[in-house]
């Protein structure tokens, strides 16, 4: 037969397994429970039926063997043949003709021609007449074998007993097992349905709450009970963590846009002002060159600011750090090479104390972080700048110190925030992203950044695993 199919989409047909997958989870669980329970109940019923049938057959076979023994004994002794209630006998000659028989089977021969031949050859015949279904009042179990009465020809003695009581007991057992299995299956399906509903109700609540989130409601989290620790509860906690990350990502994007628009507004306004002034009246060549230099400086500031914002966003969104073995002394020397000349022009010294050891870091990001700290010290600090780099017990500690007035106390808690400047004691040069960039790189490595004042100036430290 061709399996039933239903139309899913135009041009497509959906078979049984695919149709089952489209059913609700609760219904699929109930079907699975019902199928499993059907197998279990069917196996249990078959086992019970087999055990009862075996016991009844053993008893019937024992009674039949006793009756057959008595029949053969009487036949050999020449006594009249008889038997208990529900018994029957036939005595057949070698040609299969009925020589003697009880009233129940007086006219119909109980053995086939093949069985008569087998019994004549010495075999013992043992079989049933009639089946369990349909109902038949004349079902028998018989046994037959060759017998030679004294001074007579060999005959075949057939002893039979009615199977009515045995078959009736088995039919009643089948009916009781069917009723019990049906009721048990209904109960198991109901319990499975209620259990599945109870297990999936939290998921449905999560779905309703997620629909509220999809409508744009802020700061909504899934209702996860705190007094349980099961699969659904852990799913709720995971989804809430995901929502936290999504909200943090959205907040980071909003902050990026706000920071970019705020910081780009000033250089763009200055560019517009410079160009407006230059176009307001005719200018000499020197004035135009000065204007272009000012414009070039603002354009460079825009480029630096855009690059810094993009680097921060890359670190904050992916934290993609690729560690590789690096020589610490060479790493620091490379990082400060761009600032050595700037320090010399300012009449200040830049010294390094770095251990010659191998560290496992991402040099692509760590070099500009060190460079930012040094540039920040040269731009805003005073006196000599000193870089210390040590690696002990799997931790890399990088410290940049200067001899300036230090950070204002109110600035220290927010020193690593974006676009924050210590305006009270430092000039307004720079974008306020240097320390934030260094802190982001430390965090991406799994470390921290710390700023403090020292008796001789200020110090910024990066502490990260290596």
In words, what does this structure look like?
With 466 residues, this protein is α+β, with helices and mostly antiparallel strands. Among the domains are: 85-169, PAS domain (Beta-Lactamase), CATH 3.30.450.20; 231-311, Signal transduction histidine kinase, dimerisation/phosphotransfer (DHp) domain (Helix Hairpins, Orthogonal Bundle); 321-465, Heat Shock Protein 90, CATH 3.30.565.10. Helices cover 53% and strands 17% of the residues. The protein has nine helices and 14 strands. The protein has helices at residues 16-21, 25-77, 113-120, 164-214, 231-280, 285-318, 328-345, 363-380, 434-444; strands spanning 6-7, 13-14, 87-92, 98-101, 125-129, 140-147, 155-162, 324-327, 350-354, 358-361, 385-392, 395-402, 448-454, 457-465. The strands form four sheets. A five-stranded antiparallel β-sheet has the order 4-3-7-6-5, sandwiched between helices. A hairpin with a 7-residue loop joins strand 6 and strand 7. Helix 7 runs parallel beside helix 8 (363-380). Residues 424-428 have low confidence and may be disordered.
